[in-house]
Design goal:
Oligomer: single chain
Shape: rod-shaped
Number of helices: 1
Helix content: under 10%
Largest sheet: 5 strands, mixed
Radius of gyration: 54 Å
Order of helices and strands: EEEEEEEEEEEEEEEEEEEEEEEEEEEEEH
Number of strands: 29
Structural class: mainly beta
Length: about 425
């Protein structure tokens, strides 16, 4: 027989005896229970015209198996370039939701967008096995883990009762080509801005400042002690990075030119979904500029030139000479003092000349060449020859008592000679008178 709207069926009249009720057909979406249900019709006495018995059976809803196919991005590095591949997903959580309200006998029991079940990916599949009524549903990711971006796409599907199979499987893919859903790596941007030290003359002094002219500087990015990427600073003196979640170490491998010292610092970069945090080798957090910009400076290779002005054969400083040092981008003039002049200069070759000597010394017209090396002090000495002492002069000079003495002696001598001549003349006259 066939059950009516109330789910009941009545057999035709049967002879007394033992029988089995076997289900041969069930409504779509329900599992046929083919297990025989035994029953017996027994004699109930003369007064009972028809013996009856009641049987009870239940049909179970089909199981709906929802298989969500998922892969996760992973990153590796080849020749300092990041390579993105995918691996079967593990640990990502999905939920199954209703698209429309679910009702039973006209009463809403689950609202639209109500979550019915959850599942976690294992070896690339998030599996749900539950009894669902026919209807419209969707699958959406709930948790992508710490290293991947949450995929908020709703993957719709419709479940219809089409047979009596114990389980119906629905496969969820990203597209009709049956490609698995991809969890993309979460990446944070970090900009490295590189500045090089430069010298600028301000008045009589050279001042240090930093310029964005560091194209060609090379950095190394490591993870767990392994080099993963080499980064070269571009023409705009920056490099743009997109770093997946993780902890990295950044160090400078090569400056933009030999004029600069390698920055010895090693920075630790911690990337999470929330932020990029950079600390130095002392554990101090480095403040990033807008849009996660890390500013790194390179200093010029510099040494000290200690310039002395001395007399030939002497060791004391001679003050008062005007000296000049020249080199690439350098032109410094000063007057020597009682201590050597210390000049902070970048690596390179320089010349020392004298433009005005000390009083009492000859001008040294020679050019003294010297070299300054990074971290070293170069001593440079320019010698001067002392002018000879002037010869004594008897010319009268106001205020010179010795010269006045000789003038007086000369005048006195002239007077004596004059008196002697006059006396002789007078003596001759007397002799003639006699």
């Amino acid at each position: 027989g066939v059950t009516d709207a109330s789910g009941q069926v009545q057999t035709p009249a049967l002879f007394l005896g033992k029988y089995q009720a076997i289900e041969t057909k069930a409504p779509l979406g329900y599992v046929i229970d083919s297990k025989p249900i035994p029953f017996e019709l027994k004699y109930a006495g003369e007064e009972v015209a028809v013996t009856t018995t009641t049987l009870s059976a239940e049909n179970n809803l089909q199981q709906l198996q929802i298989l969500t196919h998922k892969v996760d991005e992973m990153i590796s590095y080849q020749d300092s370039n990041p390579v993105i591949t995918t691996v079967p997903s593990n640990g990502k959580v999905f939920g199954v939701f209703t698209r429309n309200p679910m009702e039973v006998m006209g009463k809403e029991i689950v609202p639209a967008d109500g979550m019915l079940a959850t599942a976690t990916t294992k070896a690339g599949i998030a599996a749900v096995e539950e009894k669902f009524p026919a209807g419209d549903f969707y699958v959406k990711e709930l948790d992508a883990g710490a290293g991947h971006d949450l995929n908020e796409t709703k993957y719709n599907f419709t479940f219809e009762h089409q047979n009596n199979a114990p389980m119906v499987t629905v496969d969820i893919y990203s597209d009709e080509a049956m490609n698995p859903i991809v969890n993309e790596l979460h990446k944070e941007k970090l900009t490295i801005k590189k500045l090089n030290e430069a010298l600028e003359k301000q008045g009589d002094e050279w001042k240090s400042h930093y310029e964005a002219n560091a194209a060609g500087t090379v950095f190394e990015l490591s993870q767990n002690g392994n080099l993963v990427q080499k980064i070269t600073i571009g023409e705009n003196s920056t490099a743009e990075l997109e770093l997946p979640v993780g902890v990295y170490q950044l160090s400078e491998a090569k400056p933009s030119s030999d004029d600069y010292s390698i920055n010895p610092e090693v920075w630790t970069i911690e990337v999470t979904k929330e932020e990029v945090k950079v600390t130095d080798s002392k554990g101090q957090e480095v403040v990033l500029k807008n849009n996660n910009e890390l500013v790194i400076k390179n200093d010029l290779k510099q040494g000290v030139a200690e310039v002395s002005k001395q007399e030939i054969g002497g060791s004391e400083e001679l003050p008062g000479a005007t000296l000049n040092v020249k080199g690439e981008g350098v032109d410094i003039t000063w007057v020597s003092g009682t201590e050597p002049k210390r000049l902070q200069l970048k690596d390179g070759n320089y010349t020392l000349t004298e433009t005005l000597p000390n009083d009492g010394y000859e001008l040294n017209s020679e050019t003294v060449a010297f070299e300054v090396k990074d971290g070293e002090t170069t001593k440079v000495v320019m010698h001067n020859k002392k002018l000879p002492a002037p010869k004594p002069s008897i010319s009268p000079t106001t205020g010179d008592s010795s010269k006045s003495f000789w003038i007086s002696v000369s005048i006195l001598g002239v007077g004596i000679v004059t008196m002697f001549v006059l006396a002789r003349r007078n003596g001759k006259k007397r002799s003639q008178g006699k």
